[in-house]
Write a structure and sequence with these properties.
Layout: H1 6-26, H2 41-55, H3 60-66, H4 68-92, H5 97-108, H6 114-121, H7 126-138, H8 140-154, H9 163-188, H10 190-218, H11 220-224, H12 228-251, H13 256-267, H14 271-281, H15 290-313, H16 323-326
Helix pairs in contact: 1-10, 2-9, 2-10, 3-7, 4-5, 4-7, 4-8, 4-12, 4-13, 5-8, 5-14, 5-15, 6-7, 6-13, 6-15, 7-13, 8-9, 9-10, 12-13, 12-15, 14-15
């Protein structure tokens, strides 16, 4: 129920976070627990990535190694296209200041694990999708700082000394280390692997829900002042990401099932990580966390619609065999 109706839970919990002051007025003793949750966000990301690592199929690392040219090409497309798209859309719609920084963060983070689930629904190559997410996550300590530095330098925003190393370290301990540790623990302890398979997805999704709720609670004033152009800019990034992902798959001569996987992987970003990073590396620009939070809603909705359309309209079409059969 949590995974299936994640977008519904996102809307409900975000609404609770946004309107909580009304509850607090009626019951002051409750306080505002979500508004002060910012310092806990990195640990929620750690929990999420640990669960992802524990749920990662054992042979996925081998799959990444076997199909490395196509996986590397897909990840490269994502890290090149999405930062450029985010920056271009922000400029096109006149987004400035904190929100511009947040838009750039949206484009620079790796793909979301929700893309793996939606790829399965879309009759795409789920194994290729997981391979893309895995590699994009593992190279994020190098790719994300490079992409952020390039885009923010182009926008004229000053980059502090030590930015690259500081961000790379944050990504190592928040993202890469938990994934590796979760995978090693699952390999060495079969009982934990079984538990993680049953509960890991729910725990990871709960952590993402809490992250977005904390961002909403801490940004109530700015959210009330948002203009429609930010929503249109984010939608443009999302839809253009899908288009580039599918066109890139065609250019790489991937079979249809893998094109679908690449499309969803490129267009769906790990916006929960993006919101957390924005608060961590730009503490003086709290509005930077708003675009990643909003992107979570947008990409979940459009991704679900696209996957459902592929599953329905493509039901009569025999998709090309999975890579294991092709090779």
């Amino acid at each position: 129920m949590l995974q299936r109706f994640l977008i519904v839970w996102l809307v409900l919990l975000s609404a609770v976070a946004y309107f909580w002051p009304l509850v607090e007025t009626a019951a002051p003793w409750l306080g505002d627990p979500l508004a002060g949750g910012g310092p806990f966000l990195p640990y929620l990301i750690v929990v999420t990535m640990f669960c992802i690592g524990a749920m990662l199929p054992r042979d996925e690392v081998r799959q990444v190694a076997q199909r490395w040219p196509m996986v590397l090409a897909g990840v490269g497309l994502q890290y090149l296209a999405m930062p450029a798209l985010a920056y271009a859309m922000a400029r096109l719609w006149g987004i400035e200041g904190d929100l511009l920084v947040g838009m750039v963060v949206v484009g620079c983070v790796p793909g979301a694990m929700a893309s793996n689930v939606l790829t399965l629904l879309a009759r795409g190559n789920a194994s290729y999708s997981v391979s893309l997410t895995t590699l994009a996550t593992l190279v994020s300590p190098l790719a994300v700082p490079l992409a952020l530095r390039f885009c923010l330098s182009a926008s004229g925003d000053g980059i502090a000394d030590g930015f690259f190393l500081s961000l790379a370290f944050k990504l190592l301990w928040m993202v890469v280390a938990p994934v590796i540790f979760g995978q090693l623990l699952a390999r060495c302890w079969p009982a934990w692997e079984s538990v993680a398979g049953r509960m890991g997805s729910n725990i990871a999704n709960l952590a993402i829900l809490l992250i977005i709720a904390v961002v909403v609670a801490g940004s109530r004033e700015k959210l009330a002042e948002l203009r429609a152009d930010l929503f249109l800019a984010l939608l443009g990034v999302n839809l253009a990401g899908y288009a580039i992902g599918y066109a890139g798959g065609a250019g790489l001569r991937l079979p249809e099932s893998m094109r679908r996987a690449l499309t969803l992987e490129v267009g769906m970003q790990n916006a929960g990580l993006g919101a957390t990073l924005a608060l961590q590396i730009f503490p003086d620009q709290p509005g930077a966390a708003i675009p990643p939070a909003l992107y979570t809603f947008g990409c979940m909705f459009t991704g679900a619609v696209l996957a459902r359309a592929w599953a329905t309209w493509g039901a009569e079409k025999q998709l090309e065999p999975e890579l294991a059969e092709d090779s």
